[in-house]
Specification:
alpha+beta, 27% strand, Trna Endonuclease, Chain: A, domain 1, five-stranded mixed sheet, globular
């Protein structure tokens, strides 16, 4: 009997996720969206133009893409109970994804390779206070 002919009905059921974890996950998701909206408003209030919000490329997502004069700013937004915890959620792997996704976005622009670029991290704590770290990762190239 070949593998294809066998009965595969013995597959296990997906793991049961406790309701409290689902609730916590939803709350974190919505808190993150609210933080992104808050940071977008912050940039607009300071004279910047929002080019994209939650831009999805093949390599990942960028929370905000902002025009600061002629500079394109890729913004990663992190929300948590305090700034240090929020910042701890920016991992080296995520930074690499942001760089490659940023390169992908620049490739969609006619003058993308000619634009000045920076990567900012925007932190929002549990009280709604904002800390902006400009050029958090250094230059793209």
């Amino acid at each position: 009997m070949s593998f294809a002919d066998r009965d595969h009905s013995f597959q296990t059921a997906p793991p049961v996720i406790p309701a409290q974890n689902v609730h916590r996950g939803r709350m974190a998701y919505h808190a993150g969206l609210a933080a992104e909206d808050q940071i977008a408003r912050h940039f607009v209030e300071h004279g910047h133009i929002i080019l994209e919000q939650r831009w999805h490329g093949q390599r990942g997502e960028i929370d905000l893409i902002v025009a600061d004069g002629d500079t394109i700013v890729f913004v990663e937004v992190k929300q948590s109970r305090d700034f240090d915890t929020a910042l701890s959620h920016v991992t080296p792997a995520q930074v690499r994804r942001l760089y490659t996704t940023g390169e992908e976005y620049l490739g969609t622009l006619a003058d993308g390779s000619l634009r000045d670029v920076r990567f900012d991290v925007a932190l929002v704590d549990g009280t709604g206070a904002v800390r902006l770290m400009e050029n958090a990762f250094g230059p793209l190239f």
